[in-house]
């Protein structure tokens, strides 16, 4: 308010005498009296066709430009302004915020009234176009609730969407500006003001380096508290906007009425009926004492039918539905599993129930997890949404398992330990078991849920970090899983978890590795016999040396037995911008064999002829190729992250080797540098597994031998850390 008043006073002073029939009108932030510290000015110089308007405009615009304040301006008559608004929905919305600054007040009032009346007449039609524009904006900026660096204005659920909610309300289409929305709006405005003050210029993206300062200015504990508040407010705005669009659609299509003129009602489940495209409670359910499972049964019906729950029904359930006993009655547990397995209707239904406080009544643990940010860039959602999304993704695998209900519950609870101290798989297992017991699962099923949560990372971690041809790997996984039923549940959960995490968490390669691991473990559990390791490719063990095979993502090389072959091939692959996924090395009849699984680092496959030529020269000891490799490796090392690398040793995790696990920042040529260092330190690598997690890697190297001496391990560790940088 104070900033707006100061700007009004300054703008009035720019013109010494305002002629009749001219008014200065503000819209945007100044029009709403919601000026951020570094906002632009949005102004209309309104006139009735008086002569000399250009001079008045110049006396206004040039001082504003000289002050370095951003300016969106126009000079129009009322008919011109209304004509533009009729054809441009963005202008229509802006005129709804019009406010008189100075000049002819009656002229401003005429525009305000005419613009409001025109909007009321055309709102239903214009909202269809506005929705198209809004969806395009959301696609470009993402969802504010789930972004670590979201745009407070343009992203879905941001300040721009509050303007749409105001317009829907002003058009008389729906009561969108309810107290929760107004409170969320004010908090988002406060956040933007603090961000402007922190940065010292106009910026709407809440970048990571400003979070702590902005949080402190707003009296919040830390940056995570700020992210959670922004996420919650954005979800409130987005949910209200979904309601607003739906109400506009209903008005456009007309309400369905029966022959008696009353709204049509269609039963869809016990105590639940459809009316006007929404689910409401049956009259008998409202009149009777509600049972504790009613809110869950309504939610299940909404998710299955993919129909929204009416706002009044949500409010009634939040106010009058009694708490659930422990353990839950069977109908409540069945409703939860139906809800989790409903597919496309799960996410919007869950969000609605969460907005009205129903989820907290079902699961007290949800308060801790709601809108909890996940800072790993691989994750696209906050923790609570990730859990719901995982349950949705799990529905694709329910027909592959013997207990689809446990798969859904396990997917929904797999990350409940996040946000608690310690390994989230370990600390989350008893939390998940307690929830499973409370919802009424029998003890044997509770034990399965506990195991699923505790082991939910086992398959992807082993598949991407261990040698699947090693019998020790298969035996350890089989011992941990215990039975084929649990194995199939873990397989479904691993895929659902990855797909709910985001595109970077899943690939065809990773899927094949996990499927191969599951197949091998299933054989071991089913027959008690460990599968035999695969035989080497016959093409590599015959014919003149060197042998180079390029086949899509597979690169295989055979050369005379010598040290450094793995490093030479890894360097060639880095030189051609190929990212290594797995590497295997072995010696057969005096030949060194290496086989890599690769993919283009930047999406464009390399020239296969050039790659094959460099591979042949490198494995033959061509010095020129080696010099190129070292030059590229040094350049990549100098640009790598300064984050500290770490080495972890795993003894007795392989048949004939010790596993050295490197956790470091990812960089082109890292595998070449590390394998070269291992070779120079006297370690023989028989296999490597490369696992990339966002900007970090977890690379496992199988070092032949026992490596029992601590001094030798220290020497190897120092060489690896030195190479990783």
Automatic annotation (TrEMBL):
Residues 554-630, 659-725 form the ACT domain. Its cofactor is Mg(2+). GO terms for biological process: regulation of nitrogen utilization. It catalyses: [protein-PII]-L-tyrosine + UTP = [protein-PII]-uridylyl-L-tyrosine + diphosphate; [protein-PII]-uridylyl-L-tyrosine + H2O = [protein-PII]-L-tyrosine + UMP + H(+). Its EC number is 2.7.7.59, 3.1.4.-. Residues 383-506 form the HD domain. Uridylyltransferase (UTase) activity is inhibited by glutamine, while glutamine activates uridylyl-removing (UR) activity. Residues 1-267 are annotated as: Uridylyltransferase. GO terms for molecular function: [protein-PII] uridylyltransferase activity; phosphoric diester hydrolase activity. Belongs to the GlnD family. Modifies, by uridylylation and deuridylylation, the PII regulatory proteins (GlnB and homologs), in response to the nitrogen status of the cell that GlnD senses through the glutamine level. Under low glutamine levels, catalyzes the conversion of the PII proteins and UTP to PII-UMP and PPi, while under higher glutamine levels, GlnD hydrolyzes PII-UMP to PII and UMP (deuridylylation). Thus, controls uridylylation state and activity of the PII proteins, and plays an important role in the regulation of nitrogen metabolism. Has four distinct domains: an N-terminal nucleotidyltransferase (NT) domain responsible for UTase activity, a central HD domain that encodes UR activity, and two C-terminal ACT domains that seem to have a role in glutamine sensing. This is Bifunctional uridylyltransferase/uridylyl-removing enzyme. The lineage of its organism: Bacteria, Bacillati, Actinomycetota, Actinomycetes, Micromonosporales.
């Amino acid at each position: 308010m104070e900033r707006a008043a100061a700007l009004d006073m300054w703008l009035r002073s720019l013109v010494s005498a305002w002629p009749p029939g001219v008014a200065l009108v503000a819209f945007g932030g100044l029009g709403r009296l919601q000026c951020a510290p570094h906002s632009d000015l949005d102004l209309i110089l309104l006139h009735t066709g008086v002569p000399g308007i250009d001079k008045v405009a110049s006396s206004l615009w040039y001082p504003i430009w000289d002050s370095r304040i951003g300016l969106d301006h126009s000079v129009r008559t009322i008919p011109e302004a209304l004509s533009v608004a009729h054809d441009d929905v963005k202008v229509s919305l802006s005129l709804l915020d019009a406010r008189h600054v100075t000049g002819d007040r009656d002229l401003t009032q005429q525009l305000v009234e005419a613009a409001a009346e025109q909007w009321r007449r055309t709102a239903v039609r214009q909202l269809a176009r506005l929705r198209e524009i809004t969806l395009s904006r959301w696609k470009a900026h993402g969802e504010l609730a789930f972004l670590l660096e979201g745009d407070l204005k343009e992203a879905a659920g941001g300040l721009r969407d509050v303007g749409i909610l105001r317009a829907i309300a002003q058009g008389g289409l729906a009561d969108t500006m309810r107290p929760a929305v107004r409170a969320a709006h004010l908090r988002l405005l406060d956040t933007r003001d603090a961000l402007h003050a922190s940065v010292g210029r106009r910026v709407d993206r809440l970048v990571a380096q400003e979070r702590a300062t902005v949080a402190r200015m707003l009296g919040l504990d830390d940056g995570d508290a700020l992210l959670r508040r922004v996420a919650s407010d954005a979800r409130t705005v987005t949910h209200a906007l979904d309601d607003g669009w739906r109400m506009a659609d209903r008005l456009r299509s007309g309400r369905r009425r029966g022959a008696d003129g009353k709204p049509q009602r269609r039963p869809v489940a016990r105590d639940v009926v459809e009316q006007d495209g929404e689910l409401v409670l049956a009259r008998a359910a409202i009149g009777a004492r509600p049972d504790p499972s009613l809110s869950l049964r309504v939610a299940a019906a909404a998710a299955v039918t993919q129909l929204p729950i009416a706002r009044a029904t949500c409010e009634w359930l939040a106010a009058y539905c009694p708490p659930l006993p422990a353990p839950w009655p069977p109908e409540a547990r069945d409703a939860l599993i139906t809800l989790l397995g409903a597919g496309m209707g799960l996410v919007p239904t869950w969000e609605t129930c969460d907005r009205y406080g129903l989820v907290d009544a079902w699961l007290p643990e949800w308060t801790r997890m709601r809108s909890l940010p996940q800072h790993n860039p691989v994750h696209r959602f906050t923790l609570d949404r990730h859990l719901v999304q995982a349950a949705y993704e799990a529905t694709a695998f329910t027909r592959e398992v013997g207990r689809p209900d446990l798969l859904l519950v396990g997917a929904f609870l797999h990350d409940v330990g996040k946000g608690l101290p310690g390994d989230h798989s370990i600390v989350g297992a008893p939390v998940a078991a307690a929830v499973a017991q409370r919802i009424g699962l029998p003890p044997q099923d509770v034990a399965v849920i506990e195991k699923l949560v505790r082991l939910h990372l086992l398959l992807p971690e082993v598949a991407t970090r261990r040698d699947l041809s090693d019998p020790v790997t298969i035996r350890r996984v089989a011992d941990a899983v215990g039975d084929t039923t649990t194995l199939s549940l873990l397989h479904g959960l691993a895929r659902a978890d990855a797909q709910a995490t985001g595109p970077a968490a899943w690939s065809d390669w990773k899927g094949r590795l996990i499927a191969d691991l599951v197949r091998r473990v299933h054989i071991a559990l089913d027959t008690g016999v460990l599968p035999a390791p695969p035989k080497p490719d016959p093409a590599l063990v015959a014919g003149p040396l060197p042998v180079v095979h390029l086949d899509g993502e597979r690169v295989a090389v055979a050369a005379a037995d010598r040290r450094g072959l793995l490093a030479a091939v890894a360097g060639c692959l880095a030189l051609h911008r190929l990212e290594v996924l797995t590497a295997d090395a072995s010696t057969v009849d005096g030949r060194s064999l290496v086989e890599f699984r690769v993919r283009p680092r930047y999406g464009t496959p390399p020239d296969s002829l050039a790659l094959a030529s460099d591979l042949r020269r490198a494995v033959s000891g061509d010095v020129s190729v080696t010099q190129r490799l070292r030059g590229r490796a040094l350049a990549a090392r100098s640009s790598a992250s300064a984050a500290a690398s770490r080495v972890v040793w795993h003894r007795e995790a392989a048949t004939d080797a010790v596993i050295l696990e490197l956790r470091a920042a990812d960089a082109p040529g890292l595998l070449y540098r590390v394998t070269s260092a291992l070779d120079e330190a006297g370690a023989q690598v028989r296999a490597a597994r490369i696992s990339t997690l966002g900007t970090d890697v977890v690379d496992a190297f199988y070092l032949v031998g026992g490596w029992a001496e601590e001094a030798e391990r220290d020497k190897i560790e120092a060489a690896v850390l030195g190479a990783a940088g």
